[in-house]
Model the fold of this input.
Amino acid sequence: MTEFRSADPPRPWRTALTVGLSAILWIAAYNIILPLANWIAYSALGLERGSRLGEAVAFFLYDVPKILLLLSGMIFIIGIIRTFFSPERTRALLGGKREGIGNVLAAALGIVTPFCSCSAVPLFIGFVESGIPLGVTFSFLIAAPVINEVAIVMLLGLFGWKIAGLYIASGLMIAIIAGYIIGRLKLERYVEDFVWKVQRVQPAESEKLTWPTRVERAWGSVKEIVKKVWLYVIVAIAIGAAIHGYVPEQALASIMGEQAWWSVPVAVLIGIPLYSNAAGVIPIVSALIEKGASLGTALAFMMSVVGLSLPEAIILRRVLKPQLLVIFFGTVAVAIIITGYLFNWIL
Done:
């Protein structure tokens, strides 16, 4: 008799072969972007090299596929890493850790743990009910949105490893120092009372995943995130292309250059109400820097937009009293301003 069985689950060797072939195609596609963009702009469209329109169009045609490819590749890699760090496991790793080492560990875990503004409240409550100190919790809440995979990928593609590394290091320092300061101030009384009354529960045991399942989830993350940000990428790069081709260099240098000492705090203040994600702000930052804006000022602006958004403040107000909310955002803002000045001084 013929035995009928359900479809076999993906085998590890098939998964490895698929990933390997995809990586080869990714590398090939990435290497032809620049010559293809130049050919379309200057040969197919007949635009003049060095002209404002030609430079803007070539910038746009090159950056859009480059950023989307970088996003897809890096989000896939980070998606694999994230399968090892569920929110439950993160709480378990941070539980019982004292301030200091706990702040460092929380900030590092914030980079690879799934997080968005809408999950700020349940994460905060989950950390509190697990007995994690308030300052350690804030180190995690700061690092997770400020240092995200989209920002890392786009900085890597636009500026290289040096700037991307400085961004990660500065974000970690902001999260560690701000969280430690908040913890030292003993501000637990400014957390809403209902948070402390939530019954503490034991963290659920993390599921054991096979490599095919991890790859499937990572690919799901790629589709989900790219679907959410692709339009932001295109619009932001279009704005960046216009700045690249048409905005005079001296105008931006005088407003956001190193000589304007007030530019860093003003950039941070401007960035707070501008709700956007890294995909929407980094291409603009890139064009600003190319036109003479100082790196520290531009990165301070970017961190302010990503890490001090008003929607996150509104969401966190559900669990934080106004005093703690002001201290939290004020501490992060000061840390970002100091980081901007530091970048301008170093680079």
User: Anything to note?
Assistant: The chain has one domain: 14-199+210-347.
